[in-house]
Design brief:
Number of strands: 8
Distance between the termini: 23 Å
Strand content: 35-45%
CATH architecture: Roll
Shape: globular
Number of domains: 1
CATH topology: SH3 type barrels
Strand order of the largest sheet: 2-1-7-8-3-4-5-6
Number of helices: 1
CATH superfamily: PRC-barrel domain
Radius of gyration: 13 Å
Helix content: under 10%
CATH class: Mainly Beta
Oligomer: single chain
Length: about 100
């Protein structure tokens, strides 16, 4: 598990996934090589903590909604409403558009 950083003004918090509480629908999502899209939806667990982000990525005719696990988050800036992800736009944009099947 990677550590993420949450930035709120002058304060920073780190830990395994401290950033998820600060993420809101509509926040900009940025990959290592540029802007990917916006947070379309937050998918949580029984504990009501977001576990996955559904990202609206691409242009109108080629729009995709990849499901991104919170472990890919490297930084969240709640003041600028920005979510930074580990990985390249092309790779993240090709992630599945459905949740993993668990039984």
């Amino acid at each position: 598990m990677g550590a993420a950083t949450v930035t709120r003004g002058d304060q920073s918090t780190s830990g395994p996934y401290p950033a998820v509480a600060a993420i809101r629908e509509g926040d900009a999502v940025v990959a290592e090589d540029g802007v990917l899209g916006r947070v379309d939806r937050l998918l949580g667990s029984d504990a009501r903590t977001p576990v996955y982000l559904v990202v609206c990525a691409g242009r109108a005719l080629r729009r995709r909604y990849p499901v991104v696990h919170v472990s890919l988050i490297t930084e969240v800036d709640s003041r600028r409403r920005l979510v930074q992800l580990r990985g390249r736009r092309e790779t993240i944009g090709r992630l599945p558009e459905a949740l993993p099947f668990v039984y």
